[in-house]
Amino acid sequence: MKNLRRLLTVLVVLAMLVAAGWWLTRPKPVQVVVQEVSRGQVEATLSNTRAGEIEACQRTKMATIVGGRIDYLGVKEGDRVVAGQVLMRLWHEDLEARLAVNEAQLATARQRVREACTVADNAEREAARQAQLVKRGFVSASVEEKARTEARARRASCDTAKADIATAQAQVNATATDRQRLVLVAPFAGTVAKISGELGEISIPSPPGVPTPPAIDLIDDTCLYVKAPMDEIDAPKILPGQPVRITLEAIPSRVYEGRVKRVAPYITAVEKQARTVEVDVDFEHPEEARGLLVGYSADVEIVLDSRSDVLRISTSALREGNRVLLEQNGVLVERSVRTGLSNWEQTEVVEGLSAGDRIVTSLERPGIAPGAHVSVEASTQAATPASTR
Question: Do the bridges between strand 374-376 and strand 30-32 make them parallel or antiparallel, or are there none, so unpaired?
């Protein structure tokens, strides 16, 4: 009996030692981050590949057609101007003198017309009078013929004088056009962004194929839009009228609503591996864009589709093959799901999960696999809200 008791005691001690060894050497549960499946809004969106920028609806980089010395500079950088206002003028006193000569020649030509045509009218009346006298037999036919010849000659002189007026007027117009080539006039109301040149300096136009700074850079900052490059693969999905969210690096806390205005009909190849299509986006509320600076760096998020009150999970929780890992009583269970709309943050779940299921989002941690024992980090169990940027 004593031997039996000793044997049982030894067996109990051995069992306890084995249990203690297993307990001390057992694998520790993996710490995981989970998210409860919830309902909410999911959007399918596209974002620009490189930074876009704010553009003015109207912008002109002005330069004179010919070169010369700046004789008049009527604006400063930052000035507001109206349409038709003279901004810059080059020295043109030689053209003013030529124009004065041309206008004097025009006035002289008009005076000659008045004189020549008056003489022609008198000659024609005299020829008509001589014709009446011939009918009455008071004068010979040769006298009448001489009067008619004189009338035709005077009328020809009148017509020649009129042609001289046209020539003189053309000279006046040509000189006035040459003068306009030396003047920069605002084609629209706006703000002077940049001036290249000072009073008295020589302004030189850009030679063909050689870009140089414009004499005056004029922008209409009352009308702004965003120009953003989108990946060529996404171009067929983008249509005018689609809603857009606009964010600016200079004002990261603000989101502006917009609409796709235009999709460029061509692809821009900045580099061999960077082929994009330019997309123009109008501000939905233009008054909100007032005060923004042309050239601000901007990002756009084009909303292709949107669904509300659907089951959604973090996109980062999806494994290859549209599978997720559920945490059930401390053990990871793999499950396949069918997805719908998706973006970088949220994915719609059409089938395979229910509201309240807890899925693992920390898939990058070592030891995460189906059947693994896990411990949930309590601070991360709440569901992540969908993005409403």
Answer: parallel
Whose structure tokens read 């693969």? 233
Domain co-membership, 155 together with 174:
yes
Contact 113, 167 (CB under 8 A): no
Which residues have a Cβ under 8 Å from the Cβ of 115 and sit 6 or more positions away?
161
| CB-count exposure of residue 255 (10 Å: 0-12, 13-18, 19+) | middle
CA dist 262 and 285 (Å) reads: 17
**Degrees (nearest 5) of the Cα angle 10, 16, 22?**
135
- The model scores a pTM over 0.70: no
Task: Note the pLDDT tens digit of each residue in 98-151.
Answer: 777 777 877 887 888 787 788 777 777 777 777 777 777 666 777 667 777 777
Helix, strand and coil percent figures for the chain, each rounded to 5:
30, 35, 30
3-state secondary structure of 257: strand
If asked whether residues 82 and 193 sit together in one domain, one would say: yes
What is the C-alpha to C-alpha distance for residues 133 and 138, in angstroms, rounded to an integer?
Answer: 5
In single-letter form, the type of residue at position 162 comes to K
Which CATH number goes with the domain that contains 260?
2.40.30.170
The CA-to-CA distance between both ends of the chain, in Å, stands at 80
Task: Give one DSSP letter per residue of 319-339, joined into a string.
Answer: BTTTEEEEEETTEEEEEE-EE
pLDDT tens digits along 283-314: 999 999 988 999 999 999 999 998 999 999 98
Q: Give me 68's structure tokens.
A: 């010369």
Locate 315 and state its tokens: 């996109």
CB 325 within 8 Å of CB 333: yes
Both 200 and 137 in one domain: the answer is: no
